[in-house]
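Quick one:
INPUT:
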C-alpha cells in the first residue's frame, strides 16, 4: 500500500501538490543531514533520514550521499547495504530484501510520468512499486524502472537498465537488461 497521501499505485495523480511537496522537502533535509554529518556521528544512517524511512532493518547501512524522494515508501530489510550516490524515487513502495547489496549510483524509479505532453504539463504521474528480493546484488549505476520485481538471489550487472521482472537466481545485463 502506498504511504503517500492521495496516491494510489498505478493511478494518475498530480505530483505537485503542497502536501507532497512538504514530504519531499522533509526527505531532502534528511538526505542533506545524512550527507553532511561526520560519519562517526552518523553511524549507519543519519537520524533524520532513519526517521523518514518506511523501514530500516537491523544491520542496514546507507553510504552518503544518498537521495530518496519521500522516504516513507522505502522499506529495507535486515542487512541491506546501499553504496554512495544511490537514488530512490519512492512514489510507490520500494522493498529491498534482507542482505541485498546496491553498488554505487544505483537508481530505483517508481515514478512514471505521463506519456502525453498535456499530462506532463498538469504534473501527472503514476506510481508503480519496485520489489527487490533477498540476497540480490545490483551492480553500480544500474537502473530499475517502475513496476519491477527482482527475485531472490538475482544479480543485476553494472550499468544494466531493468525494464522487466528478473527471475530468482537470474543474472541480467545490458540496456535493456537481458538474462545471461
Amino acid at each position: 500500500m502506498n504511504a503517500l497521501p492521495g496516491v494510489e499505485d498505478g493511478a494518475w495523480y498530480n505530483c505537485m501538490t503542497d502536501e507532497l511537496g512538504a514530504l519531499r522537502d522533509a526527505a531532502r533535509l534528511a538526505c542533506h543531514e545524512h550527507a553532511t554529518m561526520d560519519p562517526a556521528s552518523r553511524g549507519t544512517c543519519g537520524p533524520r533520514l532513519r526517521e523518514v524511512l518506511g523501514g530500516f532493518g537491523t544491520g542496514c547501512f546507507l553510504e552518503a550521499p544518498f537521495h530518496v524522494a519521500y522516504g516513507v515508501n522505502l522499506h529495507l530489510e535486515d542487512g541491506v547495504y546501499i553504496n554512495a550516490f544511490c537514488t530512490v524515487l519512492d512514489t510507490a513502495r520500494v522493498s529491498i530484501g534482507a542482505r541485498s547489496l546496491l553498488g554505487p549510483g544505483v537508481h530505483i524509479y517508481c515514478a512514471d510520468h505521463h506519456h502525453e505532453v498535456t499530462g506532463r504539463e498538469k504534473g501527472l504521474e503514476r506510481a508503480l512499486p519496485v520489489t527487490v528480493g533477498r540476497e540480490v546484488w545490483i551492480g553500480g549505476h544500474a537502473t530499475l524502472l517502475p513496476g519491477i520485481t527482482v527475485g531472490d538471489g538475482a544479480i543485476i550487472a553494472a550499468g544494466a537498465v531493468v525494464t522487466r521482472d528478473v527471475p530468482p537466481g537470474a543474472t541480467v545485463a545490458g540496456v535493456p537488461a537481458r538474462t545471461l
